[in-house]
Amino acid sequence: MADDNIHYIIEDANESTNIRLAYEYTESVYKARNEALDNLNGRLGTFLGFGGLLLRFAADLPGINTGCLTCLILKVIVCGFSAASIFAIATGLTSNSIGTIVKPRELMTDYWYKLSDERYRAYITNTWVEAIEVFEEAAIKKRKRLNIAIWLLALATIAFALDIIIASVFTP
Question: Helix, strand or coil for residue 51?
Fold first, then answer.
């Protein structure tokens, strides 16, 4: 019985090629990078909402009408940082090219029917490798924009809190 299992493993290994392994690995990396970009887009969208809400709430902050010039300055700072955060997020959400991918219609031509599965997989793997590089560049851009937006929102939130504290303590 054990010999049958070993024989099956050896036969399977002989039918397997390196390109099949490369294809499967590249496919998993492609999917992982695509999911990572989707995750970054979701996070950017969430922070876009936070930036918009903070901007909306900043409109209700005490300003010059309370006689507090510092409150007005802090209100302007909150609005400026919130707007800058929204801009950073918007530039991070702009669409990017997904790289060169094989269109299924292209693989249905007579040329591809004549080739072996290994050649088929090699061609698809090469296009995925290019797409993965594009995904990685896009992810770097999106991460930078997200980090900038988070810092801007943090600064806006601090200025927001200071405005409320100063208005509460120093205005009648």
Answer: helix
The secondary structure of 58-125, three-state, reads HCCCCCHHHCCHHHHHHHHHHHHHHHHHHHHHHHHHCCCCCCCCCCHHHHCCHHHHCCCHHHHHHHHH
Distance between the two ends of the chain, CA-based, in angstroms? Answer: 90
Amino acid, res. 104: P
State the residue for tokens 């090219």. 97
Helices then strands, each counted (H, E), the chain: 6, 0
| pTM assigned to the model | 0.74
CA–CA dist 66, 172 (Å, integer):
9
Name the strand (E) or helix (H) holding 13. Answer: helix 2-15
Q: Quick: pLDDT tens for 82-106.
A: 999 999 999 988 877 766 777 777 7
Tokens encoding 139: 């992810």
Q: Give me 115's structure tokens.
A: 């080739």
What is the Cα Rg of the chain in Å?
27
d(CA 45, CA 63) in angstroms, rounded, equals 30
